[in-house]
Write a structure and sequence with these properties.
Chain A: Its main location: membrane. The structure holds two protein chains of two kinds. By secondary structure, chain A is mainly alpha-helical. In chain A, helix 3 runs parallel beside helix 6, helix 3 packs antiparallel against helix 9 and helix 11 packs antiparallel against helix 12. Chain A starts with a helix and ends with a helix. Chain B has a single domain, classed as MetI-like (MetI-like fold). A two-stranded antiparallel sheet of chain B has the order 1-2. Chain B starts with a helix and ends with a helix. Classes of the chains: A mainly alpha, B mainly alpha. At the A-B interface, helix 1, helix 3, helix 4, helix 5 and helix 6 of A face helix 1, helix 2, helix 5, helix 6 and helix 7 of B.
Chain lengths: 275, 312
């Protein structure tokens, strides 16, 4: 390819990337404007002056937003821990042993991911109300884990398949039982996969909306995703405030993307390209 | 995406060269907790949902438990209602258009990003941001971008001379549907792109060289090599796009709440409103059970086709 054609590609690619960067930029830019400035016509492409008023008013001092962020952090962390605790042994077991029904189990974990969330959220609300678990962290963590676990097992299993069987055998010969061979030998070499699953589980719970909406009826238990949805009505046209909260909700995703992209995208796409 | 990797692996696992040995029962203990968890939190609720769909369950029954068995009355009521049929139609229009556009755009982006040029990796990362962004965030961004008076989209279209006054996208039925499709395609196209790109990179370069020597042009190489070689990946991507789009809830709920009127009320929104706004859990359950049939049937066809291809 001639270099002129390569540069033409770069130009087209830049336009394409702009379609994706501009909306995100616009969120950040709007959040940094003063309340009156967002209604300028034509709009100011760069906020001037830059103002952090929206963050001060709608994030740092808004009780609902702070509580939503705290709720989502608790739910996200608990979901991650529970998902890992269940997914690591399961993925190892499905990779290491020639169990009966391996394909059946794998199919179960796959098909479950295709089910619309509302199909489970509706009956789960009824079940949890009988158990008095609506508006509890327990209910939300169980729900989020039901979404994260099938994905976690399918992502993790290939990592355990890559662990040479001989290494685990050697540990067994040296006196490890099944469990300690798993914990001491297999887990340490699959850390990249575990990080991927941890990040994906946390971010999944952080942004989850359907279960969060269905399983919380009290304001103080709402995760940030539901709080944010409520703000767009409560704040009306205060778009700088809405965008400030949106930016804060997006922050963990951007951080993960910046620092852990190798794990998040790399991990998932490496699997896809091998298929 | 994991479906894509998983399904191939599932097939591969069946022909694994490792010899089958006696497996100690304790090995099942590794898998058991996760399987039981999925059974309790997904399969049990699904079964419970079917039970609900045969009962008359309102707010009182939710609190006190129970609910009279009414047979197929909820189904008859749901299927006979214009609201349900309307939601089904909107769901299908929304899903088919979104999937078609997301697949087309994703394929174009994948073919484009498969070329070598400066800045390629950076651009690929930029596209992926949309895919990892929580839908609560992207739906809000689009609501603001599409604002009738101050929205950036109207400003841009006005600047290009395409419109002469503000379009109130989310207020008119047709433009509202177009708007939620736009937001969906924006999110789903990079997802299709990353899977298709992986598929493209698996096509041997020698095929293209041979075609070039034989005098095949770029279009011919695309139709005679790229598309046939990509067929299995295409099928997977289309299925994944369909299943994911069909179950969309957040994007539409946040952008339009199913409105204006019921212009964007897709089935999941309809079922949600039935249950959580009108407290008709029985009919809501019937609606979701019918809704589940569509992705389920598609998956069955898909796995059948896949098996056929693997045997061929």
């Amino acid at each position: 390819m001639t270099s002129r054609r390569a540069w033409l590609s770069t130009a087209i690619g830049t336009l394409l990337a702009a379609l994706y960067v501009v909306p995100v930029y616009w969120m950040v830019a709007t959040s940094l404007k003063r309340p009156g400035d967002i209604f300028a016509s034509p709009p100011d492409l760069v906020p001037s002056p830059v103002s952090f008023a929206a963050y001060a008013d709608s994030v740092l001092t808004h009780a609902g937003v702070l509580r939503g962020l705290a709720n989502s952090t608790v739910i996200g962390l608990a979901t991650t821990v529970l998902t890992l605790a269940l997914a690591m042994p399961a993925a190892y077991g499905l990779a290491r042993f020639r169990l009966r029904f391996v394909n059946g189990f794998l199919l179960l974990f796959l098909v479950v991911q295709m089910i619309p969330a509302i199909n489970v959220a509706l009956p789960m609300f009824v079940i949890l109300s009988h158990l008095d678990l609506v508006n509890t962290y327990t209910g939300l963590v169980l729900a989020n884990c039901s979404l994260a676990l099938p994905l976690a097992v399918t992502v993790l299993r290939p990592y355990f398949l890559a662990v040479p069987g001989e290494v685990v055998e050697a540990a067994r010969v040296d006196g490890c039982n099944q469990w300690s061979a798993f914990v001491r030998i297999a887990l340490p070499v699959t850390v990249p996969g575990i990080v991927t699953v941890a990040v994906v589980s946390f971010l999944g719970a952080w942004g989850e909306f359907v279960f969060a909406l269905a399983l919380t009826t009290k304001d103080e238990m709402q995760p940030i995703s539901v709080v944010l949805a409520g703000l767009t009505n409560a704040f009306g046209t205060r778009w700088n405030d809405v965008m400030a909260v949106s930016a804060v909700v997006a922050l963990p995703i951007f951080l993960a993307f910046l620092f852990l992209q190798r794990f998040v995208v790399g991990g998932l796409t490496a699997g896809a390209s091998k298929s | 995406m994991t479906l894509l990797l998983g399904k191939r692996r599932a097939v591969v696992a069946g022909v694994s060269p490792r010899p089958r040995r006696r497996v100690p029962l304790s090995a099942y203990l590794f898998v058991l907790p996760a399987v039981l968890f999925v059974a309790a939190t997904v399969l049990y609720p699904l079964a419970y949902n079917i039970d609900l769909s045969f009962r008359d369950v309102g707010l009182r029954e939710i609190v006190a438990g129970g609910g009279d068995f009414v047979g197929l009355r909820n189904y008859a009521a749901e299927l006979g209602r214009p609201e349900f049929r309307h939601a089904l139609a909107v769901s299908l229009i929304y899903t088919v258009l979104s999937v078609g556009l997301a697949f087309g755009c994703g394929l174009a982006m994948a073919v484009f990003l498969n070329r070598r040029f400066p800045g390629r990796n950076l651009m690929r990362s930029a596209l992926l941001v949309a895919w990892v962004l929580p839908t609560v965030v992207s739906a809000n961004i689009w609501r603001w971008m599409l604002d009738g008076t101050y929205g950036l989209v109207n400003t841009a279209l006005g600047g290009l001379g395409l419109i002469d006054r503000g379009v109130f996208w989310l207020v008119e039925p047709v433009t509202a549907l177009a708007a939620v499709i736009l937001a969906t395609v924006w999110t789903m196209a990079p997802f299709a792109m990353i899977l298709l790109l992986a598929g493209l990179q698996n096509i041997p370069a020698t095929l293209y060289e041979a075609a070039r020597i034989d005098g095949a042009g770029a279009l011919r190489r695309f139709t005679s090599i790229t598309m046939p070689m990509l067929r299995p990946v295409n099928m997977t991507v289309l299925l994944l796009l369909f299943v994911t789009t069909f179950k969309t809830f957040d994007t539409i709920y946040l952008m339009t709440r199913g409105g204006p009127g019921d212009a964007t009320t897709i089935l999941p929104i309809h079922a949600y409103l039935e249950a959580f706004q009108f407290f008709r859990f029985g009919t809501g359950a019937a609606a979701t059970t019918v809704m589940l049939l569509i992705p389920l049937l598609l998956s069955v066809f898909y796995f059948r086709a896949l098996r056929k291809e693997d045997l061929a």
